[in-house]
Amino acid sequence: MSSDSDNEPIETTSDVTPASTKSSPTPEKEIELPKFEKDLADKIVEKFNTRVKVAFVKPDRVRINVGRDDIKEVAEFLRDVLNFDHAESVSGVDYPQDKEIEVVYHLGSYTDSSLSRQILVLATRAQREENPIPGNDATKLPSLREVFYSVEFHEREIFEMFGVYFQGHPDNRRLLLPEDWADLPPLRKDFAIKGR
Amino acid sequence: MTNELPPGLALQKVDERIMTLNVGPQHPGSGHMRIIVQIDGDFIVACDPDPGYVHRGEEKMAEYRNYITNIPHLERPVIHDSCNILYPYVLGVEELLGIEVPERAKYIRVIASELNRCVYTMYWLAIYGIFLGHSTMFMWPAGDRELLIDLLEKMTGARVTHAHFVPGGVRNDLPPNFEDVCLRQVNYFEKRIKEYAAIFYDNPILIARTANTGILSREDAIRLGTTGSVLRASGVDYDLRKKEPYDVYEELDFQTNVLKEGDSYARSKIPWLDMMESCRIIRHALQKMPKSGSVRVKLKPNPKGKGLDSVYKRVESGRGSLGCYIVSDGKPEPYRVKLSVGSFRNLIALPYLLKGEKLGNMPAVYWSLNYWPVEADR
């Protein structure tokens, strides 16, 4: 077992610069929130009030948590009013203890140069089934493919890897997994790697 | 008998005119993937890319190993560009742990990642050349690539799988006298790649085969969320090294290459132009780099994040934006690692580009996407 003691570095280095003396990339709590990102978050809250929850506002990153019924409306607002035009990445995260699977959209903008550094993180959660039957159980979310065309393959990947069925997606076939895969969706936490 | 088929298998109606053709996964022209094309005579009417033949579950494996032991296997999806694929992961872990990297290490990282971008691009260029029937274009880049591989070998100890970037800096300092050797090799390399214009990029046969094939309009490039050379060949000026500079790119002098045509020729030219910018970046970085100092900060063994936290970092790799989303729950192992790679994002454009093309143009269009199947499958 490994210990957490401070006195054992992994490898020696010639010269040690303690991390605390320089400015850390993540700001401390008391530092005020970055203005541009704060404004962005405020605009969304102004429009949707309590239906959205701002999870964090960091430099260049704003995260919004939305309920599954509102996600399409919020995404349309982000595209039409705030000029986010494509999805960089769509990730699933499994939370078995909450009985939920989170789907996280990272949205960016090519057309609006003021947003070129920004990534808006839009997250929602789907109900998680103990014994999943992908496509035929309650693990469903509305697809954002009509809003952001670029999510097409990402959502197909999440369907096979987590069993989250995207309603309204035109093509919910397997993408990376073999056609005859008959086990649990492999990125769920209850799918264990052999020998680990 | 029941009509129920397992998911993924579907019966297709047969049309007398349309023939369905599987290109790959064994066919060398497709890489490790299958492209299902439907052809009417010589023209492609529909195309359905089917990746996944080299899916290795990198993201699942990352949940079982701690932040440091993830490094050697996370670079496997694209070993020719291994510094760039590790870059967002390492930047993300640094943000989770709150580490500040020494200045010299930042410069070493930039030099390593630019060298790697060239190594990857040369490999891709060699393949692009051979699939267009230009054997010299296979031999030249494959040979000239060795120049930079030698440099990276001196720098990191390994020819391709470097595992050189670690949270807190780089694994080793530069060997003595590296700056001079690097400058000499990079200058010679730049001279060599400029010669490619005469045999390849100005070659009328190449232009006839690739110009005006597979045109991606600016609107489609944005709508489909493409990235990297595909995006910049369609007239969108978006390079993360300029738009969201990481490490020391802000202080270095270079420009982004943008072309307006959006055809296979423009897409194949952008990476080549980028290599010349990479040479500029390396020369400038060698000049500005602090001559001595630490290259790595000490970490605790088994570092862990502070509670539930998430971070999304991205860098410009050889194939476009490469994002890494890390969720930490305060344990030594990440809770979830997601790699959003340029190859996977550009694949969505393939059906649009191939529609209406001749079957013979398929390699020219497909390889111009700068697509790396292993990276897309992860």
Can you describe this structure?
The complex is a heterodimer of chains A (196) and B (378). With 196 residues, chain A is α/β, with parallel strands linked by helices. Helices cover 18% and strands 24% of the residues of chain A. Chain A has three helices and seven strands. In chain A, the strands form two sheets. Chain A has a five-stranded mixed sheet, covered by helices on one side. In chain A, strands 6-7 form a two-stranded parallel ribbon. Chain A is globular and about 50 Å long. With 378 residues, chain B is α+β, with helices and mostly antiparallel strands. Chain B has one domain: Cytochrome-c3 Hydrogenase, chain B, CATH 1.10.645.10. Chain B has 15 helices and eight strands. Chain B has a three-stranded antiparallel sheet. A three-stranded antiparallel sheet of chain B has the order 6-7-8. In chain B, a hairpin with a 2-residue loop joins strand 2 and strand 3. In chain B, helix 4 runs antiparallel to helix 14 and helix 11 runs parallel beside helix 14. The mean pLDDT of chain B is 86. At the A-B interface, strand 3 and helix 3 of A face helix 1, strand 6, strand 7, strand 8 and helix 12 of B.
* Biggest interface, CB < 8 A: A-B, 64 and 58 residues
**CATH topology value of the domain at 35-131 in chain A:** Beta Polymerase, domain 2
- Give the H and E element order of chain B: EEEHHHHHEEHHHHHHEEEHHHH
What is the β-strand count of chain A?
7
Amino- and carboxy-terminal Cα gap of chain B: 38 Å
List low-pLDDT spans of chain A: 1-28
Helical content of chain B (DSSP H or I, runs of 4+): 40-55%
CATH class of the domain at 35-131 in chain A: Alpha Beta
Categorize the overall geometry of chain B: globular
Which strand-content bin applies to the residues of chain B?
A: 5-15%
Measured on Cα atoms, how large is the radius of gyration of chain B? 21 Å
> Would you identify the CATH H-level superfamily of the domain at 35-131 in chain A?
NADH:ubiquinone oxidoreductase Nqo5 subunit
User: What order do the SSEs of chain A take from the amino end to the carboxyl end, as H and E?
Assistant: HEEHEEEEHE
Q: Which sheet architecture does the biggest sheet of chain A show?
A: 5 strands, mixed
How would you state the average pLDDT of chain B, rounded? 86
Q: Numbering strands along the chain, what is their spatial order in the largest sheet of chain B?
A: 1-2-3
Number of helices of chain A: 3
